């Protein structure tokens, strides 16, 4: 993948005419994921993600100082559209008081979440009208009597809060919120600033508050993880804070520097700090990665390496936060955008089109994208030892592409088809885990360096 200056998501030329359509489900079986990975929607989503990611890298200033971009950074100025989106999130949080959690016995999620979602759904149009400009929402279709842009934005907005039917929340809903913001961007909803300025405001001023609100909703209504791999997944609910948070701790860039593939800020906390509660508590106020780790500490008990083995494994990377950032982007491509259980509910309209991108490299269908017959609770075939078959020097699988002149095809880092049995290692992690886990068994025999401490 090209790690140079991020490409910028192209905005609509509304003067040339544009036809909005009601977004609809297009991913109905595993082979449809392969089509998605060659679509204009996929290219736009990855372009926007990389654009936001690039903005969070620390900046080399002309006087030699380094400007970092922590949470609540005073150097970040929030535009009027960002402030309006913050107001929208505040209104959604206030609606929580209208749907108190049900006190009755339950096995899974709290049914009052359905009440909260129903209220949000009934008020969605008015909420967007209060917090987004009429010029954006009422961008007209070139087709007489056709829907306006509001129809498409509403679909991604409502898809951002979890499923009222399944009482769950996961990375597919997080993806929908990313698309909601990208749709506003495409509709000229954010001001034209110097590269990175508005993108940083979007991440720190909108995405982080969104994640905090979602965590409140998850705890309040005990929402289940959507399509979770259990302890074998990266995180039960989210992914993008690990991308942006690792960028915050990577080496600083000037305007002309390529994005580094290794290294960290000189004073960045070591990746192994995720296994130390005091480090997490200190850093979660400043960093998206540690903020997400902190939520795990809020809702889970026991040793970190035991309940979050994938994140623990990644914490052993010695090459720094830039290496982690690069790996997280690959993993997002493979574990979110290339997985049928995650993207099957994503709707496609005109802002995020199902049409094939003419410059996309056609991906090769593999078990990771085409296997849908296996149930979520059915284990895939066991691999040798404690490492999954994908953890090899030469990964194979779908080569998902960008247009020529942009980022090159992203390498596949897919694991196994959905199921409770999944890998013990990220394919790009270092051989020596970090953290506080034991290093030997009761006999005093040390475990192999490439295994998690519980892999006996």
Please tell me about this protein's structure.
The chain contains 16 helices and six strands. It is mainly alpha-helical and 456 residues long. Strands 1-6 form a two-stranded antiparallel sheet. A two-stranded antiparallel sheet has the order 2-3. It has helices at 30-36, 40-55, 80-95, 112-131, 134-137, 149-158, 171-186, 197-221, 240-248, 277-283, 288-299, 304-307, 309-314, 321-337, 340-343, 367-370, and strands spanning 24-25, 59-60, 66-67, 168-169, 224-225, 347-348. The relative contact order is 0.17. The longest helix is centred in the middle third of the chain and has 25 residues, at 197-221.
Blueprint (SSEs and pairs):
Elements: E1 24-25, H1 30-36, H2 40-55, E2 59-60, E3 66-67, H3 80-95, H4 112-131, H5 134-137, H6 149-158, E4 168-169, H7 171-186, H8 197-221, E5 224-225, H9 240-248, H10 277-283, H11 288-299, H12 304-307, H13 309-314, H14 321-337, H15 340-343, E6 347-348, H16 367-370
Parallel strand pairs: 4-5
Antiparallel strand pairs: 1-6, 2-3
Helix pairs in contact: 2-8, 3-4, 3-8, 4-6, 6-7, 9-11, 9-14, 10-11
Structural class: mainly alpha
Gyration radius, in Å? 21 Å
Residues in β-strands, percent:
under 5%
Euclidean distance between termini CA atoms: 36 Å
Order of helices and strands: EHHEEHHHHEHHEHHHHHHHEH
Arrangement of strands in the largest sheet:
1-6
The helical percent reads 25-40%
Q: Note poorly predicted spans.
A: 370-425, 430-456
How much is the average pLDDT?
81
> How many helices in DSSP terms?
16
Biggest sheet character: 2 strands, antiparallel
Shape descriptor reads globular
């Amino acid at each position: 993948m090209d790690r140079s200056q991020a490409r910028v998501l192209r905005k609509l030329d509304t003067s040339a005419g544009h036809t909005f359509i009601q977004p609809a489900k297009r991913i109905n079986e595993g082979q449809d994921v392969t089509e998605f990975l060659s679509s204009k929607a996929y290219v736009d989503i990855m372009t926007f993600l990389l654009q936001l990611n690039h903005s969070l890298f620390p900046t080399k200033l002309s006087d030699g100082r380094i400007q970092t971009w922590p949470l609540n950074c005073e150097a970040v100025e929030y535009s009027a559209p960002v402030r309006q989106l913050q107001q929208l999130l505040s209104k959604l949080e206030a609606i929580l008081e209208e749907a108190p959690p049900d006190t009755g016995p339950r096995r899974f999620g709290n049914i009052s979440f359905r009440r909260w979602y129903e209220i949000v759904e009934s008020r969605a149009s008015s909420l967007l009208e209060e917090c987004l400009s009429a010029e954006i929402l009422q961008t007209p279709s070139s087709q007489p009597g056709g829907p306006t842009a509001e129809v498409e934005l509403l679909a991604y907005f409502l898809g951002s809060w979890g499923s009222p039917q399944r009482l769950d929340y996961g990375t597919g809903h997080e993806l929908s919120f990313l698309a909601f913001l990208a749709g506003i961007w495409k509709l000229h909803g954010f001001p034209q600033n110097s590269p990175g300025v508005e993108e940083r405001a979007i991440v720190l001023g909108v995405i982080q508050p969104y994640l905090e609100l979602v965590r409140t909703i998850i705890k309040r209504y005990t929402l289940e993880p959507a399509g979770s791999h259990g302890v074998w997944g990266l995180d039960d609910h989210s992914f993008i804070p690990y991308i942006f948070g690792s960028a915050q701790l990577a080496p600083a860039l000037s305007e002309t520097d390529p994005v580094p593939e290794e290294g960290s800020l000189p004073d960045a906390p070591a990746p192994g700090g995720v296994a130390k509660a005091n480090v997490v508590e200190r850093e979660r106020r400043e960093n998206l990665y540690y903020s997400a780790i902190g939520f795990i500490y809020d809702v889970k008990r026991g040793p970190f390496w035991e309940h979050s083995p994938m994140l623990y494994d990644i914490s052993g990377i010695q090459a720094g936060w830039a290496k982690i950032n690069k790996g997280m982007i690959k993993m997002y491509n493979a574990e979110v955008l290339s997985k049928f259980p995650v993207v099957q509910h994503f709707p496609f309209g005109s802002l995020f089109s199902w049409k094939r991108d003419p410059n996309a490299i056609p991906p090769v269908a593999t078990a990771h994208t085409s296997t849908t017959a296996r149930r979520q609770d059915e284990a895939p075939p066991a691999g040798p030892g404690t490492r999954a078959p994908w953890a090899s020097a030469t990964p194979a699988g779908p080569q998902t592409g960008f247009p020529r002149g942009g980022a090159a095809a992203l390498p596949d880092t897919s694991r196994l088809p959905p199921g409770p049995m999944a890998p013990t290692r990220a394919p790009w992690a270092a051989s020596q885990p970090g953290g506080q886990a034991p290093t030997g068994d009761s006999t005093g025999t040390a475990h192999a360096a490439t295994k998690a401490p519980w892999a006996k």
